[in-house]
TrEMBL record:
<dbReference type="GO" id="GO:0033957">
    <property type="term" value="F:lambda-carrageenase activity"/>
</dbReference>
<keyword id="KW-0378">Hydrolase</keyword>
<feature type="domain" description="Lambda-carrageenase middle">
    <location>
        <begin position="441"/>
        <end position="820"/>
    </location>
</feature>
<dbReference type="InterPro" id="IPR057421">
    <property type="entry name" value="CGLA_M"/>
</dbReference>
<dbReference type="Pfam" id="PF25291">
    <property type="entry name" value="CGLA_C"/>
</dbReference>
<feature type="domain" description="Lambda-carrageenase C-terminal">
    <location>
        <begin position="847"/>
        <end position="925"/>
    </location>
</feature>
<protein>
    <submittedName>
        <fullName>Lambda-carrageenase</fullName>
        <ecNumber>3.2.1.162</ecNumber>
    </submittedName>
</protein>
<dbReference type="InterPro" id="IPR057422">
    <property type="entry name" value="CGLA_C"/>
</dbReference>
<dbReference type="Pfam" id="PF25292">
    <property type="entry name" value="Beta-prop_CGLA"/>
</dbReference>
<dbReference type="InterPro" id="IPR057420">
    <property type="entry name" value="Beta-prop_CGLA"/>
</dbReference>
<dbReference type="InterPro" id="IPR015943">
    <property type="entry name" value="WD40/YVTN_repeat-like_dom_sf"/>
</dbReference>
<dbReference type="Pfam" id="PF25290">
    <property type="entry name" value="CGLA_M"/>
</dbReference>
<feature type="domain" description="Lambda-carrageenase beta-propeller">
    <location>
        <begin position="39"/>
        <end position="355"/>
    </location>
</feature>
<dbReference type="InterPro" id="IPR011047">
    <property type="entry name" value="Quinoprotein_ADH-like_sf"/>
</dbReference>
<keyword id="KW-0326">Glycosidase</keyword>
Length: 930
């Protein structure tokens, strides 16, 4: 360890932008003082806090709880001239570290994630002020003792909206402390700035300004911006204290707000007004600061991969936009050196970047920035795989690949490759996906549900006649990939036929005519966000969805059910979906998900696979979108420009048998590697009866508990936290509402004991190190549907499962006996379930540990295909997978793509390196047939 001293201005290099490799994916950056000099304090995605000199040397690190840190504040609270580091952690603690990274004290009131922290001075005393998802603010002494508890209920003006009894709004007058910051007043005193938020996706919130220790604010300022706020800073501009705020939103609602702290006047700059100077669709946080030179003062705004330099009068005509290849996780201005510190690139970077706004070349260097470290490694690794594919030959013993349907890929920049793949391989199949900004204007008077008769999707115009709608839709059957106009070689189409906001976007008759016009070509009808679990939605199913499914039978047509939240381990087990669950439409329905906001990806994966393996459906679907990374909508740093996380997620899903991909296009040159892996057979697409990495233990869902469904579907509101409820209601699938971003999973939660996932965040690539535990329809006892056309789970799985399956039954809240007469609390029997998972894992051919996602499928009588994936979704790193063999004996292990042999001299534990941001496809040759 070294002491971080001497970090003066002269410590900087001569460059306008300096990149410092840390080895971590850095999520947050601040600066701290030690003996009058500054250094960088950073927090990694994993929750490690470390101090790093501008020279690049790491002085100290502290892993703390191992959970994410929501906020950092660096300030001297002991009066020794050296800053302490205050850390608001998702485990509910506030941690205080000294300048050597040593823990000084902690504070925790309850289990709600701690979200914001700052320091306030009043009458010669210092207070640490913190708050979190329990809707309270706490004043602490410099040694962590509680001085004052300030509940938002005592002053908040928040008023939730909505009247849906199946997705209730929270109580009034509650908010989360989204930001806590201080204002230094002209007389030298300080005031507390609180930004209160009750909904991380739809609430722009309210500013409250307090005198220290006051019960009521001296000023309450409802914000005039359109969207939630993801940044708040207090800056001095021309002698006045200004509160600068930046939105966390999609681009059309993005803004910067400049608020006069004394008068409360607001000026809003709509970022979308810059038009083509910006890149397109995405979810970003606008992070504003102030920079000054001898010539001018400007607002410096980091916005995804752009820096906006705004004049203080917010004149867009005088705004300069700087363009970089990458977006970054955070930004901080060092008040001592006036340099700007960037956290790592969002695409899995591992550097911090120092910008010197006074350097003459800083703008050019920013625009040309290509981060070293993990970004460079990821690009090198994927280039290596692409080169190896040039000479790859699919193993002779493997069957022909199954088709994979790419439903929505933009092909404009990769037309030559698409044509080459189409002409040489049968898969992937590039469907003609298209988006319609208009919908059908038809007579809905016969719809008996008033709710759905009157609903419309506000994002589109309802102006088409049936003939116009058919003309637009049907023409795409004849568009070939890359065509600019009609042709005759289109393989099929995919489009939104409806949406949860309006399932009746097109009439049933119109959509039936679309299917009839296909002439055998593939039709995929996408229905996003069908999450309504009210009785009224049963009418929609009977009036629209099931008749449409009848029309799709035998017509090479599918209904792509792209739902959200706990749907596949919850809503689908409600009466409305019984005909899907029964398997009556196994060739029609395709389960998929919008994995945004939910923080429970390991559950939906197990649930979709459970529906598929049960025989209820014969295919399942995957999806990647910009806001996949938006586990916390109030901090949507979800503008990854290098879609490596998409690539690995799709490799993992396809290796589990998904054949329908509905992806948002980001960098098609990069993502086209996936298409080549599919086409050439390097990526093996298994049938469900070939997969041998499912745990013999499965969790079966009876009709879901109402509280579980309600809380699991209510992910936007942030103010539901109730410690008493949590203590009295242990859940099998818990901490799913909007109060738990990044929070630890409880010991009795399925996500922890079965999936091996410790937090509610971005677990798209879960370890499941004892085999993936399926969430299925009940197979035994009173909850089983013995007459369902789908048949039995064991008859759809690999033969090895025939006599080794073990079932546990749940409603999402507790466990039940097969006869339904007994029920057991989640925290009372989870160890029994965990023990069965552990013990029965020895019945599998092999298992894998080592922070990787993995799948095993039998590709011939004596060969297994083992897929290993770097599991760091947005925090990739090189991994070592440890493979343990159980019911089989390996003869040889070979990397399918590179041809490299893997050492199996100790077959009890074989180590396989998985490169950063990559995957390995391994052929395991067995001594005897499985």
């Amino acid at each position: 360890m070294f002491i971080l001293v001497g970090l003066t201005r002269s410590s900087f290099g001569a460059d306008g932008v300096t990149s410092i490799e840390t080895g971590y994916t850095v999520s947050k950056v601040r600066t701290a003082l030690i003996k009058g000099n500054s250094y960088v304090v950073a927090s990694s995605y994993e929750g490690t806090v470390f101090g790093i000199a501008y020279s690049g040397r790491v002085g100290w690190e502290n892993k703390l709880s191992g959970y994410m840190n929501h906020d950092l504040w660096c300030e001297d609270i002991t009066g020794d001239g050296t800053d302490e580091i205050l850390v608001a952690n998702a485990d509910g603690h506030l941690y205080c570290l000294n300048s050597r990274g040593e823990l000084q004290w902690t504070f925790k009131k309850n289990d709600a994630p701690m979200y914001a922290v700052c320091v306030l001075h009043h009458q010669a005393k210092t207070y640490v002020v913190c708050g979190g998802y329990d809707n309270h603010i706490y004043y602490l002494s410099p040694v962590g003792d509680l001085v004052k508890d300030l509940p938002s209920l005592g002053y908040s003006v928040s008023k939730p909206w909505g009247n849906d009894p199946h997705k209730p709004s929270p109580p009034k007058k509650l908010h989360v402390a989204n930001f806590l910051r201080k204002i230094k007043n002209a007389d030298g005193t300080e005031s507390l700035v609180v930004h209160g938020m009750m909904n991380g996706m739809q609430d722009k919130g309210v500013l409250y300004l307090f005198e220290p220790l006051a019960d009521k604010p001296w000023s309450t300022i409802p914000l005039e911006s359109k969207s939630p706020m993801g940044e708040l800073r207090v800056c001095e501009v021309e002698g006045k204290s200004e509160i600068l705020m930046g939105a966390s939103s999609m681009i059309h609602d993005a803004s910067v707000a400049v608020i006069d702290a004394k008068a409360g006047d607001q000026r809003i700059f709509g970022i979308s007004s810059l038009g083509r100077k910006l890149d397109s669709f995405g979810y970003r946080v606008a992070q504003p600061e102030v920079i000054s030179s001898a010539q001018q003062t400007q607002y410096f705004v980091l916005f995804g991969s752009r820096i906006l330099l705004l004049p203080t009068d917010l004149d867009k005509g005088k705004t300069e936009v700087l363009v970089c290849r990458y977006s970054f996780n955070d930004m901080w201005k060092d008040p001592l050196t006036h340099r700007i510190v960037f956290a790592s690139a969002q695409s899995g970077g591992s550097c911090i970047h120092i910008l010197d706004p006074n350097h003459p070349d800083w703008k050019t260097e920013y625009e040309n920035l290509s981060p070293p470290g993990k970004i460079a490694t990821i690009l090198e690794n994927t280039a290596m795989v692409r080169e190896q594919l040039k000479t790859f030959k699919r193993p002779a013993w493997e069957r022909d690949p199954l088709p994979v349907y790419l439903m929505s890929e933009n092909r404009k920049t990769v037309e030559a490759l698409v044509e080459e793949l189409r002409s040489s391989y049968g898969s992937p199949v590039f469907l003609n996906g298209f988006h319609m900004g208009t919908a059908e204007d038809w007579d809905r008077s016969a719809i008996e549900s008033e709710k759905y008769r009157d609903r419309r999707d506000r994002r589109r115009k309802y102006s088409l006649t049936q003939d116009q709608a058919l003309e637009q839709i049907v023409s795409h059957y004849d568009d070939g990939p890359g065509d600019d106009g009609p042709g005759d070689d289109g393989p099929g189409i995919a489009y939104w036929a409806g949406h949860g906001n309006d399932p009746y976007m097109f009439s049933l008759d119109t959509t039936k005519k679309v299917i009839a016009a296909a002439n055998g070509k593939k039709t995929v009808l996408i229905y996003p966000e069908l999450e309504d679990h009210s009785p009224e939605f049963e009418y929609v199913m009977d009036d629209l969805i099931y008749p449409l499914a009848d029309a799709a039978k035998g017509k090479n047509a599918n209904i792509f059910v792209r739902t959200k939240h706990v749907f596949w381990q919850g809503n689908v087990y409600l009466p409305a979906w019984k005909h899907l669950l029964s398997g009556e439409y196994a060739d029609v329905f395709v389960p998929s998900m919008e994995e945004t906001t939910d923080k429970s990806m390991e559950l939906s994966l197990a649930a979709r696979l459970g529906i598929w393996t049960s025989g209820a459906v014969n295919s399942w679907g995957g999806r990647c979108a910009r806001d996949n990374a938006s586990y916390d909508r109030a901090r949507q740093h979800s503008h990854q420009m290098l879609p490596n996380h998409f690539l690995r997620m799709m490799v993992y899903d396809i290796s589990h048998g998904t054949q329908y991909l509905d992806n948002f296009s980001v960098d098609q040159q990069y993502m086209s590697l996936l298409w080549e892996l599919i086409a050439k057979g390097a990526l093996y697409v298994p049938k469900r009866e070939e997969i041998v990495s499912f745990s013999p233990v499965h969790i079966s869902m009876k009709k879901p508990d109402e509280t579980y469904i309600e809380r699991g579907s209510n992910t936007k509101w942030c103010t539901f936290f109730d410690q008493d409820f949590e203590d009295k209601n242990p859940m099998v699938f818990g901490r799913l509402n909007g109060s738990w971003p990044g929070a630890p999973n409880t010991p009795w939660d399925f996500s922890r004991y079965a999936a091996g996932v410790k937090d509610r965040r971005l677990n798209f690539l879960p370890p499941y190190d004892r085999g993936l535990v399926l969430i299925t329809p009940p197979q035994q006892g009173v909850f089983a549907d013995s007459d369902a056309p789908r048949g039995q789970l064991k008859d759809h799985l690999h033969p090895l499962y025939k006599n080794i399956l073990k079932e546990f039954i749940t409603d999402g809240r507790q466990y039940f006996s097969p006869n339904g007469k007994k029920h057991y609390a989640a925290n009372a029997v989870y160890q029994t379930v965990e023990s069965e998972i552990r013990n029965r894992s020895k019945l599998l051919p092999l298992t894998v540990t080592g922070d990787v996602a993995w799948v095993v499928a039998q590709s011939s009588p004596t060969h297994l295909r083992l897929t290993l994936v770097d599991s760091g979704y947005i925090n990739p790193s090189g991994k070592t997978a440890s493979v343990s063999f159980h019911s089989v004996k390996p003869m040889k292990m070979t990397d399918v793509v590179s041809g490299a042999s893997i050492d199996i001299s100790d077959p009890s534990s074989v180590n396989v390196d998985v490169p950063c941001g990559l995957f390995r496809f391994v052929d395991v040759e067995l001594v005897e047939s499985l």
